[in-house]
Amino acid sequence: MHSASQTAELTLELFHFQTNASLQFPANLSVICIGKPNDQKPPDIDISGLPDSDVASRIHAQIWINGDEYHITDLGSSNGTYINGTKLQPQVFFPLHPGDRISLGQGEKITFMFRVQQHSASATTNPPPNSAPTKITAPTIGKEEEQVILASKLIGLGLILAGITFLSTSIYVSVYLRSTPGILLCIGGVVALNWSGRDNRKLGWVSILFG
Q1: 117-133 pLDDT, tens per residue?
Q2: What's the pLDDT band for 10 if we cut at 50, 70, 90?
Q3: What is the DSSP string of 90-154?
Q4: DSSP character for 25?
Q5: Which residue in 30, 41, 80, 129 has the most C-beta neighbors within 10 A?
Q6: CA dihedral over 169, 171, 172, 176, signed as positive or negative
Q7: What is the dotted CATH code of the domain comprising 8-124?
Q8: pLDDT at position 171, please?
Q9: Where are the domains of the chain?
């Protein structure tokens, strides 16, 4: 039997309420920058393509990841960052939990839900060496199938016997019909030799010869 071990994979994402789109965090990063393209620090999550993106700053906020702990901070944006309706103080870390609502700017024009998705991935290990091979059993046949097979065999045997009988009868009839004239000539010759006069004996010999 194969043994399987399960490992949990976490996917972090921001669910955008206005478009029902999910923006996933890049893997293997502990600091995620949220903003729009700029010359100082390119954003890890680019929101420039979202509706009303003009309310967000180019360098707006950061999310810090430490194991299963998450914090968010506003980077001095023009319109501020709000968590569940509470405005964050710039450059101050604030705890972030799955399900929290993040708004960039007032009026909730750009609103996200922070989500942590957990996926189970099963890893199958190879069987140990010299393990016993898997036993393969032949399929069983039911009683009805056995009866059908037996009937098919009997019908086939009957057809074979009928064919042999018909063939032998045909050969016998054919030989009999062909030999009938010869038999009649021989019988006639014998009768002519024994029960006819001397004049008919020659005819009898000729009949036997042709027969």
Answers
A1: 886 655 444 544 444 44
A2: confident
A3: BT--EEE-TT-EEEESGGGSSEEEEEEEEEEEEEEPPPPTTPPPPP-PPPP--HHHHHHHHHHHH
A4: P
A5: 80
A6: positive
A7: 2.60.200.20
A8: 55
A9: 8-124, 144-210
Question: Residue 4 CA to chain centroid, in angstroms?
Answer: 22
The amino acid that residue 33 corresponds to is C
Q: How confident is the model at residue 197 (pLDDT cuts 50, 70, 90)?
A: low
Counting Cα atoms < 13 Å in the Cβ hemisphere of 95 gives: 4
pLDDT at 164 over 80: no
Closest CA to 102 of 92, 110, 112: 112
Among 180, 190, 183, smallest CA distance to 203 is for 190
Q: Which two tokens stand for residue 68?
A: 């299963």
Please give the helix or strand (H or E) that residue 171 lies within, else none. Answer: helix 143-195
In sign, the C-alpha dihedral spanning 20, 26, 31, 37 is negative
